[in-house]
Design a protein that fits this description.
Blueprint (H helix, E strand, L loop, with lengths): L2 H20 L5 H17 L1 H12 L4
Length: about 60
């Protein structure tokens, strides 16, 4: 694994953990809206996701 990538992931994880532990998180309604946006984005690109998974993992959906 690329050292820079791992360091970036570690930094993001540490930042997210610190934010969570601070108690300064978004409310339920905000989270629901964000999850719905994520779902829409995934569904809008599901064929590209399937193609990438097949290419990467050698499996089809």
């Amino acid at each position: 694994m690329n050292v820079n990538f791992k360091q970036n992931v570690d930094n993001v994880f540490a930042s997210q953990k610190a934010n969570f532990l601070s108690g300064n998180t978004q409310g339920h309604d905000f989270k629901i809206v964000q999850l719905k946006k994520l779902k829409a984005a995934i569904l809008a690109r599901k064929e590209q996701i399937y193609d990438a998974m097949e290419k990467d993992l050698g499996r089809s959906h």
